[in-house]
Amino acid sequence: MKTIRFHSKNGKHRFMLVMFLLTEIFKLLASQSSCTKRELYYRDPKLTRNQRHVDEGLRDICSLLKADPWELKVFASSKGLVAGPLQFRSKNEEMVDCFNSLGTSIPCDVHGLVEITVNADLLLIVEKDTVFRRLLDDGVLVRLTKRVVLVTSKGYPDVGTRLLLKKIWNLYQTPMYALVDADPYGIEIYCVYKFGSLTLSHQSHSLAVPTIQWLGIRPSHIALLQLKKLPLTDRDHSRIVELLKRPYIGKSGCELQRELKLLQQEEGKAEIESLADLSIDYLVSKYLPNQLEQLSL
Description:
Elements: H1 11-31, E1 35-36, H2 37-43, H3 45-48, H4 51-65, E2 74-75, E3 81-83, E4 86-90, E5 96-97, E6 104-105, E7 113-118, E8 122-126, H5 129-137, H6 140-143, E9 148-152, H7 159-172, E10 176-179, H8 184-195, H9 204-207, E11 213-216, H10 219-225, E12 230-231, H11 234-244, H12 247-250, H13 255-266, E13 268-269, H14 282-296
Helix pairs in contact: 1-4, 11-13
């Protein structure tokens, strides 16, 4: 049986916080309602003190109960956007059509969606909000020969976006591709979508989609396309070393390993936006079609 250990230092506060969170979770389950982690913090800021304490307490409770936070009706605030031939509906709500030029916010309670309809050939995950919006402005939804759903988590992947991707994969097995910067942080973001995050490794079975393919930008594309190269920082170097130690990257011959080592050797990185130096719409007119064709061979 799982237990929570309360050490003498701050033990009283931690115990009171866990009891408070358990009480709030019981109320949510009993009333069949839900809330965000941030809302839990604001229900008693004097007790919770800060968001980190709430997050740690929830992790303890989830471990104790062998449950995921969303099963306890507690959700992280969603920051993701989706655009394209996708529709979804929550209980007692109208169908939301995501085919628009601005993007539709991904709901916090993805598990509460009673219907999801996807009419696409592929799903493209974009690292940045700026690139997501540029692709929409450039007409990516109608210019590609294949029907595409565009998704972004505006940087590091949030749980709501990852849950939606997992649900779409389970329902439709839609091929998924990731477009990230050619730097260690872009590569890490791709890995979180594909393998799961280190902090939520125990939830990878519910969040990761192992079939996601790396569309680009790869470090090997920097020289190939003569992209503008930016120097690596000390922080970049440290993150590369850390990534190379991960079991799914460290094995010999791994594509991710080769590309990360190339970053080290070339002492340079590149952003998705650098493709615009080749031509204003190079990303939509050339890069995406070429990469999708190569990956589908």
